[in-house]
UniProtKB/TrEMBL annotation:
Transmembrane segments: none annotated. This is Hydantoinase A/oxoprolinase domain-containing protein. Pfam families: Hydantoinase_A (PF01968). It comes from Streptomyces rhizosphaericus. Residues 1-118 form the Hydantoinase A/oxoprolinase domain.
Length: 326
């Protein structure tokens, strides 16, 4: 992979993966002759083959985590990142870049890695108590593996067709949660949001915010159809943590969350041939994004929300991002 990227002149001077392009082309010449291609064609074939399996993983993650392809960014780490990431991004039609100091990302990544645990139970006619029990089991599991308890995020999915209740808990180790020196200023966060929204900065406005997150939105007008409000949640480092194609945003407090959520859920619940579908709800409170989007039954949302907010002070500010399901 590294030889192929250098043969095509794609690895910049001074990069950890850089070598003499002429030497790389000479190394690929026998393969090119065997394939009946020129050296550049052989190099592209090597990169295509090498990134195919990685692209399959990327596509699966985008689907499973419900990322919008317009907001997904590939960030390469490791000594060979410059040999892989640009070609993979080009092939997948995504934005891609190589992280600063990427040659040491792999060992640092091990030290700072997120802890993740999934708990899945088949429970016919699952009640709110069943759902909360599965959620608590997943949360306990990641804390037992070393995650900081106050930073654990749990996503719960309830599939009424298969009677499956699934809870995916993620948390960071104490090392990862330490404060870092750099924090993005207002201008940096706005630029990140505008770039993700693919909108001019002048058309992006702040909709809400907490100490940890700022919520940005813009208006998209459509002919013969209702307009929509794409939303991006940006953290203190200037990283887009959440992207929603059309959402309602409401600022409230933990103590008033029940009434505010009930109103939002009523407004955003959709009705169709398949019955009622609860909106996708995310709650921004403290340094957490509580993702309740896996719940399709409106009745289950209040109990999950109370579970997420149980340790918070009643006066603490909270932002709800609510997305209707078409």
């Amino acid at each position: 992979m590294t030889c192929a990227a250098n043969a095509l002149g794609r690895v910049p001077e001074g990069d950890f993966a850089r070598c003499d392009p002429e030497v790389a082309r000479a190394a690929l010449a026998p393969l090119a002759a065997l394939l009946g291609l020129d050296v550049a064609g052989a190099a592209r074939a090597v990169l295509d083959a090498g990134t195919a399996s990685v692209r399959a993983v990327v596509d699966t993650m985008i689907r499973d985590y419900r990322f919008g392809r317009e907001t997904a960014v590939l960030v390469g780490g490791g000594g060979g990142a410059a040999a892989v990431t640009p070609h993979l991004a080009r092939a997948a039609g995504l934005e891609g870049r190589v992280a600063r100091h990427h040659e040491v990302i792999s060992p640092i990544g091990v030290a700072l890695a997120l802890v993740r645990e999934q708990v899945e139970r088949i429970i016919p006619g699952a009640t709110q108590e069943h759902i909360l029990a599965v959620r608590a089991e997943a949360e306990r599991a990641v804390v037992a593996q070393g995650a900081a308890a106050d930073g654990v995020e749990v996503e719960v999915t309830v599939d009424p067709q298969t009677s499956t209740v699934r809870a995916v808990a993620t948390g960071a180790t104490e090392l990862r949660t330490r404060d870092r020196a750099h924090r993005a200023d207002d201008a940096e966060r706005l630029r990140a949001a505008a770039a993700s929204l693919r909108a001019q900065e002048a058309r992006v406005r702040i909709l809400a915010g907490t100490d940890a997150y700022t919520v940005y939105g813009t208006e998209v007008r459509r002919r013969l159809r209702a307009g929509r409000q794409p939303v991006r949640v940006v953290d203190a480092d200037g990283v887009v943590r959440l992207g929603v194609s059309d959402a309602r945003v409401r600022t409230t407090t933990v103590g008033a969350a029940g009434e505010a959520l009930a109103s939002l859920v009523r407004e955003a619940t959709s009705y169709g041939d398949g019955g009622m579908r609860a909106p996708a709800v995310r709650l921004l409170v403290g340094g957490r994004i509580a993702d309740l989007s896996g719940v399709l039954e409106p009745e289950a949302l209040p109990a999950l929300a109370r579970s997420e907010l149980r340790t918070r002070a009643a006066g603490e500010p909270m932002v709800a991002v609510v997305e209707s399901r078409a």
